[in-house]
Structures are given as C-alpha cells and as structure tokens.
Amino acid sequence: MKYLEINTKEAPIQILLEADPSEKIITSYLKNSWCYAAQDKGEIIGACVVKLIRDNTAEIFNISVHPQHQKKGIGTNLLTFTLKKLLEKSIHRVELGTGAFGYQLTYYHRIGFRVESVIKNYFINNYAEPIFENGIQHKDMLRLYIDIRPRI
User: Fold this and answer.
1) Who contacts 56 (Cβ-Cβ below 8 Å, separation ≥6)?
2) Residue at 152 is within a domain
3) Which of 18, 38, 48, 90 is the most exposed, having the fewest neighbouring CB atoms within 10 Å of its CB?
4) Does the pTM exceed 0.70?
5) Could you list the residue range(s) of the whole structural domain that residue 34 is in?
6) Which residues form the N-acetyltransferase domain (predicted)?
7) Are 109 and 87 in contact (CB under 8 A)?
8) pLDDT tens, position by position, 5-60
9) Residues 47, 23 contacting (CB under 8 angstroms)
C-alpha cells in the first residue's frame, strides 16, 4: 500500500462518488485543491480532496475508499497521511462537513475531530436528490475541526 499526492485531474471520481453523490459538486471542489490517494498494486483505491480555505486552515471536501477495500484501515491511514502532508504545508487547522449521524461521525471523532457547528438543512438545500443512510435522510451538516499542530 502506498500513499501519495496526485494531480486532481487524476482524482478517481467513481470512488469520490461513494462519499458525495453529486459529480457536479465534486468537480467544483476539485479546482484548486490537493488530492491524496491510497494506491494498491498501481491502482487508486482511496482518495482525499483538501482545499486551503484561509491562512493555515484547510478543508477536507471528500475522503473515500473503494467499497471492496473498506474496513481495512486504509481510510484512517489515508487521513493520517493527509494530515501529515497538510502540517508540512504549515496548515494548523483542518475542517470538514459531514452528516449528523452515521459511521463517518464515529470515524472522525476517533481521529480527534470535534464538532464546531451545525448547518441546518444543508443536504436538503444543496443536493438535488435526498441522501439516505440506513433508511434515514441526511438533512443537517455537522462542521468538524481538528488542530493538527504538534503538542509540546
């Protein structure tokens, strides 16, 4: 398994669609972003798209692993690799938005992300089709953050 930075033009759209069902939205946030990938035997099996949003702060817009490779620690390793690379770019704070429930929320908390705010009706207002997980519709977005500066 290899973790590396790739050109956003090489970003695996089909994999990114696992985490975000709108190709139009994915295309919009790929512009002026960094893309980090998990590669196995020359094939990209996971990707993380990050963008600088203000001084020393970046936002993760998408992180996803191909379904056949999930639950193997690849996503966690990819996120850890991404955070390390962002720290090398003098990024101190990383933010992201996610649904208000689901496995991804536990995943982010385990890494050290904290809830900062809630955007009511985000998924209703920004996606043409409703997004469901385990039969429940995603409506609100949680905004999470992590401070990645080393602790003394």
Assistant:
1) 90, 91, 92, 93
2) no
3) 90
4) yes
5) 2-147
6) 1-149
7) no
8) 999 999 999 999 999 889 999 999 999 999 999 999 999 999 999 999 999 999 99
9) no
